[in-house]
Design brief:
This protein has about 140 residues and is an all-alpha fold. The protein is about 90% helix and about 0% strand.
Length: about 140
């Protein structure tokens, strides 16, 4: 029966059907090629975004480290100045003599306890500051969203 229908339609219909199939196959191959190309491009984009993210993280790390190094240097210089202000003759001591003096001074039990108390108090203050800052950031984020 199907053969009768095709015969009734004539040779042009068969030619049209063949052309349509060939065009469909050609378009399917082209589509598959484009899909493969799209996957490659998406992979490249993902890789570039990852590289960008890593570079940003490295930059932030360097900035943060640089700031902390500056703060540490500043703190050490000021503490050294304070030592020389309290003990004017310390500038004439060699490095070994200065370390020996510092060990003797800081080995006293009462001084160790006092320093430990001061440090504990500062840590509490820093933790409270950090907690308040996190709460404020969370509030801003909540209101912003």
């Amino acid at each position: 029966m199907a053969k009768k229908i095709v015969e009734a339609r004539g040779p042009y219909f068969e030619e049209f059907q063949q052309d349509t199939k060939e065009a469909f196959v050609k378009e399917r191959k082209e589509l598959q090629g484009l899909e493969a190309e799209l996957k490659e491009i998406e992979l490249e984009i993902a890789q570039q975004q990852h590289r960008k993210h890593r570079a940003e993280n490295a930059l932030n790390y360097r900035r943060k480290r640089n700031r902390s190094d500056k703060a540490r240097n500043h703190r050490l210089i000021h503490k050294g100045i304070a030592v020389e202000c309290v003990c004017k003759d310390s500038e004439f001591l060699t490095e070994a003599e200065f370390y020996q003096l510092a060990e003797e001074i800081f080995s006293e039990k009462s001084l160790k306890c006092k320093i430990a108390d001061m440090v504990a108090e500062r840590k509490k203050e820093k933790e409270e500051e950090k907690r308040l800052l996190e709460e404020a950031e969370a509030l801003v984020k909540k209101e912003g969203v």
